[in-house]
Recover the amino acids of this structure.
């Protein structure tokens, strides 16, 4: 087995007061920030709009942010992320836009974002023409029927003209979607099976815009509140479940110490997110649940070694046994946490805006989760065990007074308070 430390003998418990003091300072600062500044809640909790937009050509994220700023959005609150793997042209052209809610009606922000992008990237020069990259087949068919460039209403039976224009409109939209969701040129649409003059009709009815809204999702404040409440309930239930398991598998004292360490990790992470105003989204909740399990696992490894040592070294001081258990598992703790930390650090540096909340929560959680297993859970277990040991001797004299008949022990024998008659000599 790989070991980073050869026979370590660090006095962790001797520095327990300093560790606890540091944690208290961080927790107090975080709690004050949570009360005074609150949290930077993302769209998932505060409500807002999530849109996937595909552009005709690879977009510049700074230009998109500038367009939304001119449209009335605060740049710091806007999240822009490439959605594809950049393996194809369409992937490079697609971005995910996440904005807070600014309009009262459900579709207000969707319209506002679309108009902001159109103004910046250039709306159709002719307001009577439809943007082929934004409209659906029904709107296009209606517009073609109104113009009736081919005079189909005059030459075809009633209703046939509408069906023919609708068939062509469906063909145009299907061609657009097959090309990745955007068209750069109307002439790229094949006219097989249609009157060649349909190309002229299409040019009079529509024009090519800069982007296409692939999908739009609206999250209302009420939904965000419900998600927040569910996240809190899930975290509490997870802590209670682990407390019961550890109490069953070890002792309830071990469970309490482990849960206190987990609560410490959660509060520290929340406090730092409040202090630095990092955004809290649904991915943050996933990271918190991961953190709870990770921190608990690290604590159980140390507690299991403490239990093994106590079984073998009953006469040794509890502080010495606990400190030795921490040192014996130190290599495992550092290697496991260190490798996980490297992976999380890569997410922080290269994961982008969408994974920022998740990766930062894991980074802070792993650091403080490893720290709390050594500096919080173990001292609490030690102090509580000592408290119980101090109370136990007081119960021993009370047991002795309950013996009946004033029995006394002399040497290894039990003798009565009455004088025993001597046996007759033979």
């Amino acid at each position: 087995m790989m070991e980073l430390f050869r026979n370590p003998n660090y006095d962790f418990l001797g520095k327990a007061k300093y560790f606890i003091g540091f944690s208290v300072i961080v927790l107090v600062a975080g709690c004050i920030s949570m009360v005074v500044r609150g949290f930077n809640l993302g769209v998932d909790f505060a409500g807002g709009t999530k849109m996937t937009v595909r552009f005709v050509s690879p977009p510049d994220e700074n230009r998109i942010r500038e367009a939304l700023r001119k449209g009335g959005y605060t740049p710091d609150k806007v999240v822009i992320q490439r959605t594809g793997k950049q393996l194809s042209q369409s992937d490079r052209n697609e971005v995910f836009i996440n904005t807070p809610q600014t309009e009262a009606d459900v579709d207000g922000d969707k319209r506002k974002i679309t108009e902001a992008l159109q103004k910046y990237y250039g709306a159709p020069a002719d307001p009577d023409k439809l943007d082929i990259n934004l409209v659906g087949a029904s709107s296009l068919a209606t517009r073609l029927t109104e113009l009736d460039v081919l005079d189909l209403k005059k030459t075809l039976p009633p209703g046939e003209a509408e069906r023919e224009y609708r068939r062509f409109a469906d063909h145009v939209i299907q061609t657009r979607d097959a090309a990745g969701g955007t068209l750069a040129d109307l002439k790229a649409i094949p006219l097989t099976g249609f009157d060649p003059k349909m190309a002229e009709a299409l040019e009079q009815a529509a024009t090519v815009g800069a982007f296409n809204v692939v999908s739009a999702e609206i999250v209302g404040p009420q939904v965000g509140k419900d998600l927040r409440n569910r996240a809190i309930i899930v975290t509490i239930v997870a802590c209670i479940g682990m407390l019961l398991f550890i109490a069953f598998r070890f002792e309830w004292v071990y469970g309490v110490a482990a849960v206190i360490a987990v609560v410490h990790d959660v509060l520290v992470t929340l406090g730092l997110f409040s202090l630095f105003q990092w955004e809290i989204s649904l991915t943050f909740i996933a990271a918190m649940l991961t953190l709870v399990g990770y921190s608990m696992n690290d604590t159980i490894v140390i507690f299991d070694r403490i239990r093994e040592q106590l079984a073998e070294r009953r006469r040794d001081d509890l502080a010495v046994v606990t400190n030795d258990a921490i040192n014996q598992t130190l290599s495992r703790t550092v290697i496991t946490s260190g490798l996980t930390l490297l992976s999380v650090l890569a997410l922080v540096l290269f994961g982008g805006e969408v994974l920022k909340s998740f990766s930062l929560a894991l980074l802070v959680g792993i650091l403080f989760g490893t720290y709390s297993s050594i500096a919080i859970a173990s001292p609490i277990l030690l102090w509580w065990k000592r408290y119980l040991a101090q109370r136990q001797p007081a119960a021993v004299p009370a047991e002795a007074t309950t013996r009946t008949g004033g029995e006394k022990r002399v040497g290894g024998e039990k003798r009565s308070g009455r004088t025993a008659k001597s046996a007759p000599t033979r």
In short: Confidence is low (pLDDT under 50) at residues 85-90, 398-426.
